[in-house]
Amino acid sequence: MRTGPLIGKNNDLEANMDWGLKNRLSRIIKPDTGRTVMLAVDHGYFLGPTSGLEKPRKTIEPLLPYADSLMLTRGVLRTSVPPEADIPIVLRVSGGTSILSELSNEGITTSIEEAVRLNVAAVALSIFIGAPHEKETLLSLSRLVNEAEECGIAVLAVTAVGKDMVRDARYLSLACRIAAELGAHFVKTYYCDGFEEVAGTCPVPVVIAGGKKTPEKEALDLAWNAVKHGARGVDMGRNIFQSEAPVAMIQAVRAVVHERKAAAEAYDLFLKEKRKKGNKTEAH
Ligand code: 5RP
């Protein structure tokens, strides 16, 4: 059992948290390793029926036993996740745009009362630093923190990257730090060269997105590098559910994040699990 602070590098963050908030966050970031494998399946909120998520229930169900939390919208939660499922929910509550419009023009789509009704552990909202609607998304984050903290619900800020932004350490450090300053309890960002600066200057836990589908070995390398340089885990979507063997892939990601296995060893596990009957999905 890990004996240090549950979610921070020091006790300051936890000392200022209510029991309920700590409890919810510790359901996502596992106390025994201090890390998390979040499964992101919220892509449809602006991308529509993303490859691999055409039938969300079919994609999600086999992965549920291996995910530490599920990040999704209320629509997919209600229609595609059994209410009996024992998994912390990270509810995406920002949206209002599509791939055809200005992505930064998001607002809050889902009330905090709805989040309570859905018994979520955390709510998630994107911020768009340097984009046309930067200010609105930052004020939305601040409002969400005010409302969510009243209910002991954690807030995940997603540092979404606009079309013209470079995903480098300077930009991502800026975005993560601003999210934490405005009160986010954890932050989702991208891995980049110099990631230790991003994680090291953000006073709350940082997790990384997987990004576009890459070969499984590359995605495992990404996860390994991220945790090595300070990420507390992943909030990964496409590199899991678009894999030809999603169940094998999420198990391999868990091996990197929770068991601290090297990427090569985790890849061997992926190949072994992939060979098992039923672990390979039909082509998407
Ligand atoms: C979109 C999101 C997605 O959940 C995020 O991109 C994670 O998924 P992936 O690993 O596929 O990049 O937050 O803003």
Write the layout of secondary structure elements.
Layout lengths: L11 H4 L3 H10 L7 E5 L3 H4 L8 H5 L8 E4 L1 H7 L8 E4 L1 E2 L11 E2 L3 H6 L4 E6 L6 H17 L3 E6 L9 H13 L4 E4 L5 H6 L5 E3 L7 H13 L4 E4 L1 H4 L4 H12 L5 H13 L9
Parallel strand pairs: 1-2, 1-10, 2-3, 3-6, 6-7, 7-8, 8-9
Antiparallel strand pairs: 4-5
The structure holds ribulose-5-phosphate.
Choose one word for the global shape: globular
- CATH homologous superfamily grouping: Aldolase class I
Question: Which architecture name does CATH use?
Answer: Alpha-Beta Barrel
Rounded mean pLDDT is 93
CATH topology: TIM Barrel
Element pattern in H and E = HHEHHEHEEEHEHEHEHEHEHHH
Name the CATH class.
Answer: Alpha Beta
Strand order of the largest sheet: 9-8-7-6-3-2-1-10
Quaternary organisation of the protein chains: single chain
Amino-to-carboxy terminus distance? 39 Å
Q: Biggest sheet, in brief? A: 8 strands, parallel
Descriptive account of the structure:
By secondary structure, this protein is an alpha/beta fold. It has one domain (12-209, 227-236): TIM Barrel (Alpha-Beta Barrel), CATH 3.20.20.70. Helix content is 40%, strand content 14%. It is built from 13 helices and ten strands. The strands form two sheets. The protein has an eight-stranded parallel sheet with strand order 9-8-7-6-3-2-1-10. Strands 4-5 form a two-stranded antiparallel ribbon. Strand 7 (154-159), helix 8 and strand 8 form a beta-alpha-beta unit. It starts with 11 loop residues before the first helix and ends in a 9-residue tail after the last helix. The model has no long low-confidence stretch (mean pLDDT 93). The structure holds ribulose-5-phosphate (5RP). The site of ribulose-5-phosphate has 15 residues, from strand 10 and helix 11.
